[in-house]
Amino acid sequence: MRRVVVVGASLAGVHAIQTLRERGYGGEIVLVGAEQALPYDRPPLSKSALLGTTSFADLALRPPEWYEQQAVRLSLGTPATGLDVAGRQVALADGRLVDFDGLVIATGSVARPLPLPCDDHRRVHRLRTLADAQRLAEAMASARHLVVLGAGFIGLEVASTARQLGLDVTVVEAAAAPLSRVFGEVVGGWFRRLHERHGVTLRCGSAPVAVETPPGGVRVRFGDGTGVSADLLLVGVGAAPATGWLHGSGLDVTDGVRCGPDLGTAVPGVVAAGDVARWHNHLFGEEMRVEHWSNAVEQGRHAAATLLGAREPYRAVPYFWTDQFDAKVRVVGQVDPTGEIAWERQDDTSMVAVFGRDGVVRGAVCVNAPRQLATYRRVIAGRAAWQDVVRDLAPVAPTAAGAGDGRGGNVTARRRGGGSSGQTAGVRGPGTEDQGGDRHE
Amino acid sequence: MAFKVIFDAERCQGYANCLIEAPEIWEFDENSDKAVLLKEFPGDQLRAKAEASMRGCPAGAIRIEDVDE
């Protein structure tokens, strides 16, 4: 290969470049990015950077000289607009065509737009890019009341940050509880209590029908005529894989770029990594797409290795984090609200919920419980039997009935004995040894 | 080539990703909410895991240096 083009100035893209060079690739590398900024770290955008404790300038993943050292030609501020797999060219927004021998697709995802009619978007915000975060931080500095549409991860993180900055915050969610599409209503109820304890007003279970823009403010209106008025609105209704530029290319882009187990696409010399990649994960026996930080790092590396001919399957137990107030939330594996769920513990300061399906443990949510996270990753990688692991745990009722207010409703089945005495999590059964099954290098 | 893990506890923000990636090398102190480096010289068989913990640290608190045996 004489030239590899990496489309997406992203975490996955940077790690792909680093791996290409580490593995001895000496040809040209061109990095194409839609934004002007050098690749930067996104998780702080809703947390420390928005709070002001991290400078926006400090978010760069690599210093400018790194790209020179790695002999990377930068083409930033020029989004890719098309792909010609037969002619092996990427089209850019400024009209240029860039030839490639190898292509890494790492365009990530885009925030879904406001799904409601709205005449004036000046007080409507999304949060995906550095520019989004700077605009939101500026608006929050002079605002008193923020309304968040959507109690997903971004919405709840911004709610937490805004409360810490002293704003009044109302979160509007159509589902019955925050995060219920991800965790189910009962585990979602834990997050409702967390936010309510910190003064967030949650309005769950009713879908707004319009966003109005009275002078100087914004108002989310519901079908019954009631509404929530605020100074600004954050739309946090999820993200979609950034595949618009690939339509018509011949690649399968149904919910992400479809890849084989090794992250190669159906076109030789074209690989994908990060949020945008849908691949078959042997460890779970299914196709998945993961929109999280660590996955972007490891898939960036893996896709680069595949491009250089390694062709190993990418097997991984994905994990991610979200910080909200004093809750360090860590999620490992696949959590599925329609499967089985059991509490290992839950109280105001910490919580561990285990998720299973088809007789095996597949995921866990651990709040302020870092050791459990590491333990469950091994349990999941070892495909431990659900019955063995949850034998003594309290099942979570399949519906939220009686648990919505949940204070003490589902008792803790097994509580760790306090302190940081170095004891391991109370999980037994197969798979607690390091199986090594989640490594992929 | 042997290697050494260098941990900057000041930078650690308690993500615990290192513990997920390499529980043989890391522990976690829930009082300080920071990682604890157990093995400064993990040995070559743990190199891939040590490197994964370095990459997996969002705070950039972990480095790996080659050392002469």
Can you walk through the features of this model?
The complex is a heterodimer of chains A (441) and B (69). Chain A has 441 residues and is an alpha/beta fold. Chain A has three domains: 3-110 and 240-307, FAD/NAD(P)-binding domain, CATH 3.50.50.60; 124-237, FAD/NAD(P)-binding domain, CATH 3.50.50; 326-433, Enolase-like, domain 1 (2-Layer Sandwich). Chain A has ten helices and 27 strands. Chain A has helices at residues 11-22, 48-51, 64-69, 130-141, 153-164, 180-183, 185-197, 293-307, 370-381, 386-390, and strands at 3-7, 28-33, 72-76, 80-84, 89-92, 97-99, 102-105, 109-111, 124-125, 145-149, 168-173, 201-204, 208-212, 218-222, 227-230, 232-235, 239-241, 257-258, 270-272, 277-281, 286-288, 319-324, 327-333, 340-346, 351-357, 360-367, 394-395. In chain A, β24 (340-346) and β25 form a beta hairpin. In chain A, α1 (11-22) packs parallel to α8 (293-307). Chain B is of the alpha+beta class. The mean pLDDT of chain B is 94. In chain B, a hairpin with a 4-residue loop joins β2 (26-29) and β3 (34-37). Helix content of chain B is 20%, strand content 29%. Chain B has a two-stranded antiparallel ribbon. Chain B has a two-stranded antiparallel ribbon with strand order 2-3. Chain B has one domain (2-67): Alpha-Beta Plaits, CATH 3.30.70.20.
Write the layout of secondary structure elements.
The complex is a heterodimer of chains A (441) and B (69).
Chain A: E1 3-7, H1 11-22, E2 28-33, H2 48-51, H3 64-69, E3 72-76, E4 80-84, E5 89-92, E6 97-99, E7 102-105, E8 109-111, E9 124-125, H4 130-141, E10 145-149, H5 153-164, E11 168-173, H6 180-183, H7 185-197, E12 201-204, E13 208-212, E14 218-222, E15 227-230, E16 232-235, E17 239-241, E18 257-258, E19 270-272, E20 277-281, E21 286-288, H8 293-307, E22 319-324, E23 327-333, E24 340-346, E25 351-357, E26 360-367, H9 370-381, H10 386-390, E27 394-395
Parallel strand pairs in A: 1-2, 1-7, 2-3, 7-19, 9-16, 10-11, 10-16, 11-12, 18-20
Antiparallel strand pairs in A: 4-5, 5-6, 8-17, 13-14, 14-15, 20-21, 22-23, 23-26, 24-25, 24-27, 25-26
Helix pairs in contact in A: 1-8
Chain B: E1 2-7, H1 17-21, E2 26-29, E3 34-37, H2 47-55, E4 62-67
Antiparallel strand pairs in B: 1-4, 2-3
